[in-house]
Amino acid sequence: MKKTTKYAPEVRERSVRMVFEQRSKHPSQWAAIQSIAAKIGCIAQTLHTWVRQHERDTGQRDGVSNAETARIKELERANEILRLASAYFVQAEFDRRNK
């Protein structure tokens, strides 16, 4: 069974900031991530994911930022509403012609 722990956004932000602040004291970014993950009580891969997402959000790394992801979801939701409305009106027009 998989245990999922939610971390507050403040904890995530502080942890990522600590990685960048402590980077120079470690031989690699991964070493900094491992050190800080142990201090905050999460696994290193979780913190690594947060750091990579922060890098994408700030433009330091290629990929889709959280803002772009939210915008895509919003547009997909709008498309779905328009598709359903279109199908409804087509059906209503078809029913009206048959009467």
Q: How big a fraction of the residues is strand?
A: under 5%
| Global outline | elongated
Q: What's the SSE pattern?
A: HHHH
Distance between the termini: 58 Å
Total domains: 2
Helix/strand/pairing category: mainly alpha
What does this structure look like?
This protein has 99 residues and is an all-alpha fold. The protein is 74% helix and 0% strand. Helix 1 (9-22) crosses helix 2 and helix 2 packs across helix 3 (44-57). The longest helix has 33 residues, at 66-98. The protein is elongated. The chain starts with 8 loop residues before the first helix and ends with a helix.
What descriptive keywords fit this protein?
mainly alpha; 4 helices; elongated
Describe the secondary-structure layout:
Blueprint: H1 9-22, H2 29-40, H3 44-57, H4 66-98
What can be said about this structure in brief?
Helix content is 74%, strand content 0%. It has 99 residues and is mostly helical.
